[in-house]
């Protein structure tokens, strides 16, 4: 099967890493070291091979090593399907994140065409019990992994909605202006809805009949009217009808920006938010593995998986099952944990890297695996 893997990763003045370089093959990467050593920072650097603000959703300046006031840079060699790309991403102090692919300046969305990156971070443990915004972001990342063009649709929708919200706040009553913006929102919104539904269908298919130790998560969209839109015409009509209500509120109250994602532990028929902490984690892992299996078919290679502190939350049996499934999938999964023993089951199936904190910042040491 074709691969998607980082075969080199270099960091310069990135968070706690003054300078770091890893030379890798396509196997999973097991990263261990004490709290605060700089493991998550490494995953964050890898997450910048996808469009957006990375797995911490940080501003570009926040990622610059402090103190210093210098910019940062992350460089990687990405083996994607049967091609090799050199990807550079960086930010100057006070500047936005820049991207260059094979020496040519590129928009961030271009990253989505050569790489697919999915992640699970401890903050997502509360995904099913906290606000809808996090779930929407999760849904859109899944959707983006299947359809890189989804990012453009979301940007177009948000831009038109911001302008419409300004009209609403300023009590402007120019129907032509409203109709023009609503037309743009409806076109982008219908695409957003269709992309999301297609992504959920792909996930459902990838979960059905899969041999996995993780529970099937049944996903559905919910939310106020228009959250899961039909066609562009229906959506445009809903926006026009809602003008009075929206003007009273000073913002757009219905539309795909209000969608929520609901999950159910399918075998038990219990909503994810009512499941135990361990079950909720298992549902997320199940979804990310299903997403990976679907992408292996659709994109042609499994995605890069960034799994922060995933091993610590699983019992030994589940952990071994996760490693087996990742290896069967053939994904370059980057996993972090505090000690090497968490990754012993992986043995030579993974590359093991120790992160240590030294006087000058974080440092990396590739190490031989401790055998099972
Ligand atoms: N911009 C920055 N400049 C310098 N150091 C930073 C910056 N941002 C974060 N750090 C440092 O990076 C370290 C945290 O790194 P990271 O989150 O990668 O730790 P970790 O190894 O994943 O730890 P844990 O096991 O606790 O999750 C902290 O010591 C923090 O102070």
From TrEMBL:
It comes from the Bacteria. It is found in: Cytoplasm. SUPFAM superfamilies: P-loop containing nucleoside triphosphate hydrolases. Keywords: ATP-binding, Cytoplasm, DNA damage, DNA repair, DNA replication, DNA-binding, Nucleotide-binding, SOS response. Its main location: cytoplasm. One of its GO terms (biological process) is SOS response. The keyword ATP-binding applies. The keyword DNA repair applies. Residues 25-357 form the AAA+ ATPase domain. ATP binds at residues 33-40. GO terms for cellular component: cytoplasm. PROSITE patterns: RECF_2. GO terms for molecular function: ATP binding; single-stranded DNA binding. InterPro entries: AAA+_ATPase, DNA-binding_RecF, DNA-binding_RecF_CS, P-loop_NTPase, RecF/RecN/SMC_N, RecF_2. Belongs to the RecF family. HAMAP family: RecF. The RecF protein is involved in DNA metabolism; it is required for DNA replication and normal SOS inducibility. RecF binds preferentially to single-stranded, linear DNA. It also seems to bind ATP. This is DNA replication and repair protein RecF.
């Amino acid at each position: 099967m074709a691969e998607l893997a980082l075969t080199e990763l270099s960091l310069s003045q990135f968070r706690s890493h003054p300078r770091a370089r890893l030379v890798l093959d396509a196997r999973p990467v097991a990263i261990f070291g004490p709290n605060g050593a700089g493991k998550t920072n490494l995953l964050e650097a890898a997450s910048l091979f996808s469009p957006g603000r990375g797995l911490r959703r940080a501003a570009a300046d926040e990622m610059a090593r402090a103190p210093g006031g210098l910019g940062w840079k992350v460089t990687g060699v990405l083996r994607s399907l049967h091609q090799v790309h050199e990807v550079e991403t960086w930010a100057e102090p006070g500047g936005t994140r820049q991207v260059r692919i094979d020496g040519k300046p590129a928009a961030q969305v271009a990253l989505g065409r050569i790489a697919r990156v999915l992640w699970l971070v401890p903050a997502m443990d509360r995904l099913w019990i906290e606000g809808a915004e996090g779930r929407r972001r999760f849904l859109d990342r899944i959707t983006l992994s299947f359809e890189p063009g989804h990012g453009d649709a979301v940007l177009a929708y948000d831009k038109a909605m911001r302008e419409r919200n300004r009209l609403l706040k300023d009590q402007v009553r120019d129907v032509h202006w409203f109709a023009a913006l609503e037309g743009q929102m409806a076109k982008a919104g219908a695409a957003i809805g269709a992309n999301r539904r297609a992504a959920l269908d792909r996930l459902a298919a990838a979960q059905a009949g899969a041999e996995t130790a993780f529970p099937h998560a049944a996903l559905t969209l919910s939310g106020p009217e228009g959250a899961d839109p039909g066609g562009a015409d229906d959506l445009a009509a809903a926006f026009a009808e809602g003008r009075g209500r929206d003007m009273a509120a000073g913002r757009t109250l219905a539309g795909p920006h209000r969608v929520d994602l609901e999950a159910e532990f399918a075998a038990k028929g219990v909503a994810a938010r009512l499941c135990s902490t361990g079950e909720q984690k298992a549902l997320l892992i199940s979804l990310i593995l299903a997403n990976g299996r679907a992408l292996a078919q659709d994109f042609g290679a499994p995605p890069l998986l960034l799994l922060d502190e995933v091993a610590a939350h699983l019992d030994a049996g589940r952990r071994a099952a996760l490693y087996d499934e990742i290896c069967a999938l053939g994904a370059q999964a980057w996993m972090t944990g505090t000690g090497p023993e968490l990754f012993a089951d992986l043995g030579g199936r993974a590359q093991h890297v120790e992160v240590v904190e030294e006087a000058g910042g974080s440092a990396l040491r590739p190490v031989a695996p401790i055998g099972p």
